[in-house]
Specification:
two-stranded antiparallel ribbon; alpha+beta; 6 strands; 4-stranded mixed beta sheet
């Protein structure tokens, strides 16, 4: 295996570059339920993101861990960025027109 080198970094290997890194903590998202008013944190696997053609058809959803209600909330551009960057499963909705 050859050493990876770059500008100003001669002799740096992938192993040495990552040697000081520790395990990354899983991403969690804060959420709230409009039904029971519970506040909690959810793992990316507990959320789903649907991206539609417009802001009206773009939303995220989850099941409230406290009361079991299905929750659906609108997702603007920033929320979409955060959820996709955090590993939330995404569904792209297509228009039938």
């Amino acid at each position: 295996m050859s050493e990876a080198t770059g500008p100003g970094r001669p002799g740096v290997t992938a192993a040495s570059a990552f040697a000081g890194m520790r395990r990354v903590a899983p991403v969690v998202f804060r959420a709230g339920c409009p039904d029971c008013r519970g506040r909690f944190e959810l793992a990316a696997s507990a959320l789903r993101l649907a991206i539609g053609a417009t802001s009206r058809t773009t939303f995220y959803s989850f099941t409230c861990p406290e009361c079991g209600s299905a929750v659906r909330k609108p997702a603007g551009e920033r929320i979409v960025e955060l959820l996709t960057g955090g590993g939330v499963r995404t569904l792209r909705l297509h228009s039938t027109v």
